[in-house]
Structures are given as structure tokens and as C-alpha cells.
Specification:
The protein is 19% helix and 27% strand. With 112 residues, it is α+β, with helices and mostly antiparallel strands. The chain has one domain: M1 Pyruvate Kinase, Domain 3, CATH 2.40.33.
């Protein structure tokens, strides 16, 4: 069965800034927030917990579909150690349920 990794269901990706910063420190490499190529960078949000759940960012609603595991393309564009470090820390793939405005500083929370 083909993966939907790049299919229409995977519309948004998120990653935790804590993991980006920890990798840069652990690997002693220059690594910026945009290098993982995720759409949204969060702070203080355990994204793995949102897998399989509906959640909101600002006024937009998403379904957390699966974890973003590191791939060879990510490593080739950044650093080979991302393959080990970002395992289960690479972020979350999500589907947009309802679009809405998202601003810097908006909260992320489980939709009730």
C-alpha cells in the first residue's frame, strides 16, 4: 500500500522548537528553525500527544494524522545526525479540518 506521506491528507506539518534547539546544542551544529521545513514551529506543545486528535491553532482546526519521522531528504539538506536525533521528535503531519487565521503566539489546544 503506498504511503500518503506526500498526499492530499498531509496538508500541514508542525515541529517543536525545543527539539530544534536541543538538536543544535547536542550536535554542536548551526541549525535554524526553518531547516526542518515544517509549516508551523510550536513552543511548549507536546506534538506527539496530538497524533490521532483534533486540535486548534489560532482559529484553524486540524486532525493530527501521524508523526513526521526524519527522512534521507531531511538529512541531505541539513545534517546526517538528524536521522537519529529526530526519531519521534520530527513533528506532526496534520489535515486541515477548518481553515482560519493563525498568528505568531497563538495557542495550540485539543479541540473540545
Amino acid at each position: 500500500m503506498p504511503t500518503l506521506q506526500f498526499g492530499p491528507e498531509y496538508q500541514v506539518t508542525l515541529i517543536e522548537i525545543e527539539n530544534i534547539e536541543a538538536f543544535a546544542k547536542t550536535a554542536s551544529v548551526f541549525f535554524t528553525n526553518d531547516m526542518p521545513r515544517r509549516n508551523l514551529v510550536t513552543w511548549g506543545v507536546p506534538l506527539n500527544d496530538l497524533c490521532g486528535k483534533r486540535f486548534k491553532v489560532g482559529n484553524a482546526t486540524f486532525d493530527g494524522l501521524e508523526l513526521c519521522e526524519p527522512c534521507a531528504l531531511f538529512a541531505s539538506r541539513t545534517h546526517r545526525d538528524v536521522l537519529k536525533y529526530f526519531l519521534r521528535r520530527g513533528g506532526l503531519r496534520a489535515r486541515i479540518v477548518m481553515g482560519g487565521e493563525i498568528n505568531v503566539g497563538d495557542t495550540v489546544g485539543v479541540d473540545s
